[in-house]
Structure formats: structure tokens, C-alpha cells
Fold:
Amino acid sequence: MQQNGKKIALIGAGNVAWHLGQALAAAGHTISYVYSRTATHREALAAKLPAASPLAHLNLQHTATDCAIIAVPDAALATVAQELQVPENALVVHTSGSQPLQVLEQKPSIRAGVFYPLQTFSKEKPVDFSSIPILIEAQQEQTRQELKALAESLSQSVHMVSSEARKQLHVAAVFACNFTNHLLGISREILQQANLPHELLQPLIQETIAKATAFHPFIVQTGPAVRGDHNVLEEHLRLLQQQTGYRQLYELLSASIAATASQPPQ
Structure:
């Protein structure tokens, strides 16, 4: 174990906890416990971690835990935080991008913080934590420094960000990741309906992301909406007339593209 490695309890066994727990263990920290309401989930993750025991309750008060990481859905965060019992002065952090630090500050006996890895996680797909931005927040300087050290044991990109700024970042991430992924799913379904392989779009997708990373995306926008090619737009809408949801999305996004084209970024 690395010097000053922490004894950590993972509260949650979903996608974030799955990857974060293994990354922390690989960095020399000890994951002592894995809690999940679902027995098979906590057992599966604990089996991936050398020193972890699956836990069916939230009472860690008489353990050697010095850090509890809450990685649960946002809707469950406040309830789990209230029920969690940890040793006095233990560090308790959550991994949510949209929830404020204050959701943990209802218990004066803990040192609260935020430890938000900005990435999309799926259990089936390995990730490299060294390049993942980790956003941290805490009120106390000592807690901030501990979180910084913990984050730097995983990543080369560690940032101190307030709850309000993190919410804005989370909105941006939903546009960049979740909406983009959904649109890619729609494009695949359209290809399937035409009996065309989805691999045809791979080079286009890769070039789009490469350009959007290298330049301001609005500046390198292409397609019929930015050109004002109404004949093509109308033909596409005709092709989508049996798919009302996709047609509405097409109209909304085309209008947004046209609006941003008329007001280029400064």
C-alpha cells in the first residue's frame, strides 16, 4: 500500500463505484467495505477488491474506516447520507456532479466533501483514471488537502470546484455526453431501418469529435441547417414523418444550429 493510503468504505456498487473502487485499490488504498442494498451487487464488487467485505447495513461506526465514498443515484443520496454512521471525524464524500456539498453537512461529526470524477462509466468498459478530471470540494482546508491527495493518487487532472460551478459543468456534460450518445443511438436505428451497417458512420463520428475538440464546435458546424438548405431539411422531415419524436428532435436541433450560425462565438 502507498504511504498514507486510506481505509475506504464504498457506499454503492453501481457503475461509478465499480470503477472508482478498483482504481483506488490499484493506487494503494484499502477498500474495506462495499455497501449496496442489492446483495449480488455488493458481493460482485467486493469480489473485485482484495480486502473488501460486502456490507448489508450502513453502520460503520465501530470500524477503522477513515473515508466513506457515497456513490449512489442522486435521488438516494440525502437518505443514504442521513443513515450512514461512521467513526467520528471520518471523511465522507459523494461523487455526484449535480448535488451540492451541503447535502452531507447535516452531520457535524463528519468532514464532508465532494469527489466527482467527470467521466461516463459502464461496468463493461475499462477506463483510465489517470486522465479523468476529478472535481473536489470541501469547506475545511485540511479536508481539501486530503481530498486533493486522494484525487492525485488516481488522476493528473484535479480541480477545486464549487457546488454551483459543478452544477453548470454537469449540465454541460449532459449535453456533451448523454445527449450525444442518445443521438448516436438514433442514427444507428435509422441505419438499421435502411439495412445499412452502423460502421459506415464510424469515420464521420471520429472526425466530428476530433474537430469539436480542436476547434469551437459552432465554428466547424456543417450540414443543411447551417447552410440554410431548406430543400434537404424538408426532405429529411418527410423521411421522419412516421417517427414523431425523432422528427421533433430534428426540427429543434436544426433551429438551434441555424440560430448559432447567425451569431458566431466571440
Notes: Strands lie at 7-11, 30-35, 53-55, 67-70, 91-94, 111-117, 134-138, 158-160.
